[in-house]
Every structure is written in structure tokens, then in C-alpha cells.
Design brief:
about 140 residues; mainly alpha
Length: about 140
């Protein structure tokens, strides 16, 4: 699949790649991750894609870390687990991932899985914005 086609298909599923990464990620790795994201949104491949995404997350690839948090939030390829949403969003945010920072802000704002804290929510929303994230 051509790179432009891959991005169009990802957009149809509402999958966003943090643009701040685009210049820093080797094209081959970005294409691999993009294919994993596509597979996450296909019922017949989502469990395998989750495992492949988890492998990238365990190798400290921040976009995969934030995606794993989303998978645990929505039950994509795995069971829903709010504790793991908190863990992976914190990990992604600490690794400079804008989407991870935004998700962590949402968790603090709503008190999901962690104590509600408006100050921490504002801090992480600001950090996500500073990193260029626009929901």
C-alpha cells in the first residue's frame, strides 16, 4: 500500500499520528506502525495487531504506548483495563508523546482510574498542546 493511501485509511478510522514524530521516525518504522494501527480496527486482526503494538510499546516507542492505552480504554484487541490505561498513558506522556499527555489530562479531569485533579489535568492539557496535539 502506498504511504498516502495508508494515511487516508488511518484517517477514516479516526486514528491520529502525532505529527511531531513524523520527522523523527524512520519511514519503515512508521509504515509498520501504521499497518498495525489499521489491523487494530479490523475484527479479524485486532488481537494480533494488539500484540505487535505491545511489542513496540515495550521497546519504548511512544506512539505505540499511547495506542496501547487507547486499546485498554476501548477494549480493542484486549480486555478493557483502566489501570493499564493509566499506566500506559503516563508512560507515553513521560516519553514526550502528545497524545499520551492528552489522554492523561482527560483521566485527571474526569477522575478515571486516578483521583480527579483539575491542576494536573490543566498541566497535562498544556503539555499536550505545547507538543502540538490538537484533538
Amino acid at each position: 500500500m502506498e504511504e498516502d493511501d495508508l494515511w487516508k485509511e488511518l484517517n477514516q478510522f479516526g486514528v491520529l499520528i502525532d505529527e511531531s514524530y513524523l520527522d523523527d521516525i524512520p519511514v519503515e518504522l512508521l509504515n509498520l506502525f501504521s499497518q498495525i494501527l489499521l489491523d487494530l480496527y479490523q475484527p479479524e486482526t485486532e488481537k494480533d495487531a494488539f500484540k505487535r503494538c505491545m511489542s513496540m510499546a515495550l521497546d519504548d516507542f511512544p506512539p505505540a504506548e499511547s495506542q496501547i492505552a487507547r486499546c485498554y480504554m476501548d477494549g480493542i484487541g484486549t480486555e478493557k483495563d483502566i489501570g493499564k490505561v493509566v499506566y500506559w498513558s503516563k508512560r507515553a506522556a513521560k516519553h514526550e508523546d502528545a497524545q499520551g499527555a492528552y489522554l492523561l489530562a482527560e483521566l485527571y479531569e474526569k477522575g478515571i482510574g486516578i483521583p480527579q485533579d483539575a491542576d494536573k489535568a490543566a498541566q497535562w492539557y498544556a503539555e499536550a498542546k505545547r507538543r502540538g496535539y490538537r484533538p
